[in-house]
TrEMBL record:
<protein>
    <recommendedName>
        <fullName>BED-type domain-containing protein</fullName>
    </recommendedName>
</protein>
<dbReference type="InterPro" id="IPR012337">
    <property type="entry name" value="RNaseH-like_sf"/>
</dbReference>
<feature type="domain" description="DUF659">
    <location>
        <begin position="155"/>
        <end position="303"/>
    </location>
</feature>
<dbReference type="Pfam" id="PF04937">
    <property type="entry name" value="DUF659"/>
</dbReference>
<feature type="domain" description="HAT C-terminal dimerisation">
    <location>
        <begin position="531"/>
        <end position="577"/>
    </location>
</feature>
<dbReference type="GO" id="GO:0046983">
    <property type="term" value="F:protein dimerization activity"/>
</dbReference>
<dbReference type="InterPro" id="IPR007021">
    <property type="entry name" value="DUF659"/>
</dbReference>
<dbReference type="InterPro" id="IPR008906">
    <property type="entry name" value="HATC_C_dom"/>
</dbReference>
<dbReference type="Pfam" id="PF05699">
    <property type="entry name" value="Dimer_Tnp_hAT"/>
</dbReference>
Amino acid sequence: MSGKAIDPGRKYEIVDPANANNWKCQFCMEWTRGGVYRLKQHLVGGFRNTLECKMCPAHVKEETRRFMLEKAAAKKITQMMPEVDEYDVEEEIDCEASGSRNKTALKMPRPKGPMDRAIARWIYDAGIPFNSVNYESFPQMLKEIAQYGPGLKPPTMYELRVPLLKKEVDDTHAQLVEHKKEWASKGCSIMSDGWRDSVVQKDIINLLVNSPKGSVFIKSNDVSEIVKSSTLLFDMLSRMVEEVGEQYVVQVVTDNASNYVKAGKLLMAERKHLYWTPCAAHCIDLMLEDIGKLSMVKDAIKKCIYMNGYIYSHTSLVNMMRKFTKERNLHRPSITRFATSFITLSHYHKQKNNLRKLVTSKEWNNSKWPKEAGGKKVRTYILQESFWKQVLYALKLTGPLVKVLRIVDNEKKPAMGYIYAAMERAKETIVRAFNVREENYKTAFKIIDERWRCQLHHPLHAAGYFLNSVIQYDHREEVDCEVVENGLYACIERLVPDKETQDKITMELEKFKNVEGLFGCNMAVRQKKLKSPADWWSSYGNTAPSLKSFAIKVLSLTCSATGCERNWSVFQHLHTKKGTD
């Protein structure tokens, strides 16, 4: 009797008497065309061209998988094939209608464990930030490595430092040329953001240029010697405008610290056809910081920070918590530091009932956590009604502000068409949340008004609001007022030097207001809420060509400089020796 293993594919197939190339699975009773190898793929699962059998018992799946591995290993030896990882290929015979036989090499799925460990070990050894795997270039790199296959030699340090770096620089210059074309046609914003590098004790300013095509990093300056001088900051910003091209720059966005405010005013006095605007996201972040100092809000944040620290420092407790929260976390990094605190409060509020179930569950009571001082404190907070009242109070005050922050930080849909009235609407939402009981929000409104004063009635914001088709046609009463129109005309005079073009724009405004030509076509009416304001003008603005150009330039502008903050860890390398070692 032969000791040769029986092919599982033969054991578990039912062959079609009329056509030996058709078979039926014994478990799911589905008919399929193809050879016995396809049946084994069907039983094991994980192959692109074959559906997995959902009825196959685990022992049959394992038996088939093991047989395929052993067969592949034997084939490798007999054919003297080059060594491969854990699985090899086996020929599959597909029978076409004509009876021809095609051989296709298919690979068994490989386990990810060793690969993940190798990638992780390299990241740990090199001290690379964990969030680097979120870059689009990371999966692209893995894809290229996988396509190359076995035998890939990694680039040397010399190749990385010289020829490959030169190619990347050339690619970057080519991309910059395309961005400059966009600056010339639609205008751009210079974004400036200052920060303190605590490692090398330097004050750094990141300078980027933003346009509808995206943001481009230009330079990162050490301003330790000039950061307190508005005159020197003005000189730096003015040189940046010159470098980009004054004819392209519509606005310069900075934070609203007093020295930047003075530098911005000096810049507008010197450069007559651009605006300085304070970063809206920075203003809102300062509001959130100040509101976070109110006693009830401060207490809620303090308790949440404590619970987060305790829960997330114990892996087993995190796993237990996630069972009750349906795998959702209690915290998530946000656009700004202070927004993160309030979004965390929001997550706690959403999980209120689940967290209460957690700390009163049998699983919790049988664990070590109720016996520890930290666990007792967490349980007390979660079951404390006064804590949840504090959380709700904080969210009523800050929820609408966080929504405005998300609007102004949206790079895909610039907020210039909405920001003019965004804060007023946020305040209206807060009033309704407290049923017009002024004592609950009076202090917060003083904070909001003080921080938002620098943004109030800015000509660019007024122009963007007026040119937003949704506001113009659905809320005409909001833009049909002297304040908004003054801002619009001031903006036209400053951004459009040519008087003849100014006159054309003001004449074409009537066509826009009266919904003439393309402005009134069914698609334009229907899509004004579907497209961003700038895209809408791009599609339907040809009835007023001069106004169209002006509208797109204004409505494409960013309202914040938060794009400068995306890669602080990268910018930090530019001011230390680490990046060039």
